[in-house]
Each structure stands twice: as structure tokens, then as C-alpha cells.
Amino acid sequence: MEPLVDPDAPAGVTTTDPVVELVDVVAVLGSFPALAGASLVVNRGEIVLLRGPNGAGKSTLLRVCAGLVPLARGEGRVVGCDLRTQRQAVRQRVGLLGHANGLYTDLTVRENVTFWGATVGASTDEINASLERLGLAARLADIPVGRLSAGQKRRTALACLVARRSQVWLLDEPHAGLDAAGRDDLDATLRTAVQSGATVIVASHELERAGSLATRVVDVIGGQVHEHGGPEAESTGAG
Amino acid sequence: MAITAHTDSRSSTDTGRRTRSTGTRFTRALGIATIVLFAAVALFGLLISPADITQGESVRILYIHVGTVWVAYLAFVVTAVSSAAYLWKRTTSLTWDRIAGSSAEIGVLFMAVTLLAGSLWGRLSWGTFWVWDARVTTTAFLFITYVGYLAVRGLGGSHQQRARRSAVVALLAVLEIPLVHFSVKLWRSVHQEASVAGSTDVTLDGSMLFSLVLATVAFTAFYVWFVLHRQRVMAMQDALDDKGLDYALVERRAEGAQSVRGNI
Amino acid sequence: MSVFRIARLVAAKDLRIERRSRVVINQVLPFAALVMVLFAFALDNDDTLERVSPGLIWLATIFSLLVVVQRSFAIETADGALDAIRVAGVDPAGVFLGKSIALALQLLVLEALLTVLAVVLYQAEPSGSGVLVLFATVLPATCGLAFVGTLYGGLAAGTKGRETLLPLLLFPVVAPVLIGATRATEAALGAGGAATSEGWPWIGLLMIFAALFGVGGTLAFGPLIEE
User: Which value, to the nearest 10 degrees, does the dihedral of the CA atoms of residues A24, B158, A172, B249 take?
Assistant: First the structure.
């Protein structure tokens, strides 16, 4: 298969380095099949936007890719590790930001980022760099997370992802609760992350992101994935 | 319409061998043997064997009590071994998990009967419903621990998750029960009180011993019969859940297809 | 990252949170003191109280253990941190050891308070050599309680009405600690005429318990917190 490089995409996108490969995955929550046979391939350096109505399975898809939810049926590999047998390895290399932020509300921003960074042995410099990248180094670093706004908590959680050196970023509605400037900042952060070699999968209702942020848009409906072309194909109305 | 046709074609192959009943030739034979054994136990226990010299008729309760306590502990061991087997080298065969679960269910029942029968016997023999010795207390703890184990089994999640979680809890119980037994034993040995009243050792002879052994065999047969049936029922329930999953998948995909069509 | 580094990280984090929020200090310690007072109301006899004071200390400890364990995991589930720890693939054995250490340290403070209260409220009197036995009792007993508390606390943590499972699972398991620690403390305090030397076999039992559940918990914690 010859590599295809999309001229509009951020640098480094090829189609021969899959970081996520899901084949006909069924995943259950209790007895409900949140994913009913989902297939998806994501290559390194892509920013993929998952669109779909509520209850479609976007969150579950992200949690499956994070190695959190086991596969009831189907096969999958993330960053080269099998989702049935190597989930622990998958988790160490992947970062998930779901509806909850994964933070300790009594600790400050700096303490949270330091904790998460320390789990992978990050140095103080890396931690400071993570804080700066998300604009947290100045006023907010020493404020307990419990006192922050929703948007600020999101940014803290992203700083933790940066500090943990995650290779794939799985983000569930990350733009929620951010103002316009915050959303643009977030997009800039994601693009920078991708340039440093990460891959991003975002589940979002923010349709404008399709053009400015994502390199590819897929629809998640009824627990299955329907591919589209790039954002250009989307805007011309092709199915 | 499409849904019913779809599942009809899959019904007889998906659920495996058993789709209607959990009985086989072996369990039917075993069931009949168990009934015969119990009849024999009733005969010997109530009629043929004599009353005890010191305890009178109340010794007959022992025929039930000893049988159930043996099965209760057997059930505990089987649950522990099956749990270990499930976790060993990830055989991931849910049969081991189902054996562990069914064994625990009947084990809890037998432990309750043991405690009840023992309590009655104690009351009739020495006037006390309860005695604080190692064996009795450990049995009571085993009962509570298994109630907890069954509660953990009911927590939900996929079958594999339920199996792994309960297997770990069962093995922790294997750790805990000897500790409880040993600490209670050490505790009561410090109090050298009422050792006669606390002793459940009774010397038996002849037909009494035979009745006791017969009762033990009868209860064991009942245990095996129960576990076999219950395990198969669980397998059918799990298969039903999977079937339910198939139904649910079809519906979910249909909902998805509709919405895609609606978008175009 | 080695298990011990993760453990130190997690323990430091838990203790830092407690230092910041002071929930154990402000809520659990008063609760434990209150339990000791309620015992006095219920038992209503000075001689009885003095004789059973070791038992009351450890009963109050075990009731408080329930609350402290629930708090230890409430901080994890408040904003999905335990989930995040699982997502991050942090070694669960390290998490178990770290949380156990933090829990043990908080329990030690609790037990110190309860012992002081027993001396004050129930007129318990430790003899000279008894203090040594007391220390030798408290350390393994506390470790044992911390290990099983963290283990079953992890299982019972989270939503779907699992919290009510905690007492049912935890209390049968801590029975050997209650028996052993109480008997050893009786020996230490000379309650009911027990000699100090009688405490040592019980201390051995407590050490075995702590060792078994330390190892067992390290192995079992990972599978138990899996969703």
C-alpha cells in the first residue's frame, strides 16, 4: 500500500503506521451492546473526529481504545498491543480524558500534574513544560483543583496527559465548558501534540472542528463506525 | 420481521448441547440413587439405630448435622479449587466459574442447616444454643463469608469480569478461614471452661456409625446432583445473556441503519 | 517504575490530601472518641469497662476503619482518579501498597488517640513492660487492618451501590485481628489479670495475618479493581 500524504494535514501523517486498529468490535456495558461491531483504523499523526448522537457509542469506543473496556467480540490493536491480551501495556501508552477529569480535587494543579508525571518518571522540567503548554504555569498552578472552573480542570487534565507522554490522546468532549479562546487554545495544543508524534481521537459535538482541527471525520451511529472522506468531502455533502 | 427470521436460524446451534432441560442419564440415575439413599438414612436414622445411652433420641439430629457439615466444607473446598482453576493460566473456561458459583450456593444452604441443626442438638444435649469453640465459630464465619461471596457474584459486568472478581474473593476466603479458625481456637484454649459442654465428639458404635456414614454419602450425592444441575442452569443463563446480546446487537444496528438512512 | 516508587508516590499523595483536607482529623477522630463514650454509656460499670477496655479500643478502631477506608476511596472516585489510575496502567500492586501505607499511618494516629482515651475514660493502666507489648501489637495489627481495608475497599469502591458491600466483606476478615489484638492488649494493660508475657503468641498471629494479606492483597488488588 503506497503512503498517502494529505497536503492539508499536519506534518507527519502517513497511512502505513496504524496506531489504532479495531475490527468488528462489540463492547458491552452491563448487557447493553454499546459498540455493535465497530471497525476503525487510525494512523499516527492523525486527528480523528468522532461525530454522532448521544448514546451512539463514542465514549465506549474511546474507552475501548484506552484498554479500559474489554472486547466482548472482535479484535483490536492499539499502539501495537493487542486489546485482548495486552491491555495493561495499552493503558500505559495511551491517555484518556473522559467525562471525569481524573484529578484529585484537594491537590493543586501543580501537585496533580506532578503526580501523574511522576508515574512515568517525568522530570521537573517536563512537568513545568506541561504546565506552560496548557497555560497553567502562572496564576493557576498552586490553586486546588476543586476550586477551578470546568474549563480549567480540563486543561489540568490535558497537562497530565502531556506529562505522562501519552502516544494516543483519546478525548471525550474536550471542548465542553471552554470559551471561544479556550477552544482555540485547545486546538492549538492538540496540533502541537500531533506534531510531537502523538495521535488524537476526539469525540465531539463541535461540528466546526471538522474543518479547522480534524484531519478526518467519522460518524459513530448505533454502535458502529461509518467512515467519511476528509473534511473536504464532508462539506461537499458526499455520503 | 427480519429480526425473528434472523434469530430462528441461529437458535438451535448457538446455545450448545442443552436447550431444554439440564437432565442427563447420569443425573437422573444419581437423583434416583440420592432419593433411595435418603430413604435408607431415614430408615436407619429414625428407626433401626438405637437411641444413645446418654443423649437419648436427640442423637438422631447428628445424622443430619454431620452430613451437612461435611458437605458444607466440601462445597467450600470445591469453590476454592474451581476458582483457582479458573485463574490458572487463564483457562478462561467459564465452567470453572459456574462450578464455583453453584457450589457456593448450595454450600451456603448447607452451612445454614448445619448451624441450625447443631444449635438444636446443643440445646437438647447441654441446654445451650451456641458454644464459642473454634469449629462452630469458624462455620458461622464461613457462612457469612460465603454470603459475601454470593453478593460479589451479583455485582454485574461481563461474565468474565464476574468470574475473575469472584475467583479472587474466593481465594481470599481460603486465606481468611484458617486464620479465623486458628485464632478462635487459640482464644478458647486460654479459657479452660466448660470443655465437656463444648465438645462435639461423641463415641458411636455399630448401626449408629453406619447411619452416620450413610447420611454423609446421601448428602454428598445430593450435593453433586445439585451442583451438576445448577451449573448447567447457569450455563443456560449465560447462553441466554449471549443470545440477548445477539438480539440487542440486531436492534442496535437497525437503529443505526435507520438513522444513517434518515440523514441522507 | 518500580512497585515501591509507585507506592511511595501514592502514599505521599494520599497523606498530602489528608493534610490538606483534614477529613480524618476533623471527622473520624471525633467519631472514634464518641464511640468510646457511647461504650461507657452502654456498659455502665467501671470495673467492667476497665476489664474490657482493650476490646473497646479495637472495636472502635474497626468501626472507624470502615469510615477511613471509604474516605480513602472517595478521593479516588470523586473525579474519576481511580479510573484514571487504571487507564494510565499504573501498577496496581504499587497503588495497593501505597494506599495501605497511608491508611496504616492514619490508623496509627487513631489508635494512639483511642489508647489515651481508654486510659482516661476507662482507667486502663499500662505497666512498664506492657508498653513494649503494646507497640509490638499495634504495628502488625495496624498493617493487617490497612491491607484488608485497602483490598476490600478497592472492591467496594465506585458506583452501582457497591459501598454497602464493604462492611459485609470486611468485618469477617478482620475478626482474627480483633481477637489477636484484643488479647495482646489485655496482656499489655494487665486487664482482667492477664500477664504481659501472654501477649506474644497473639502478636505472632497478628504478624502472620499481616504477612498473608500483604502478599495476598498485592496480588489480588489489580483484578479486584478492574471494571
Answer: 40
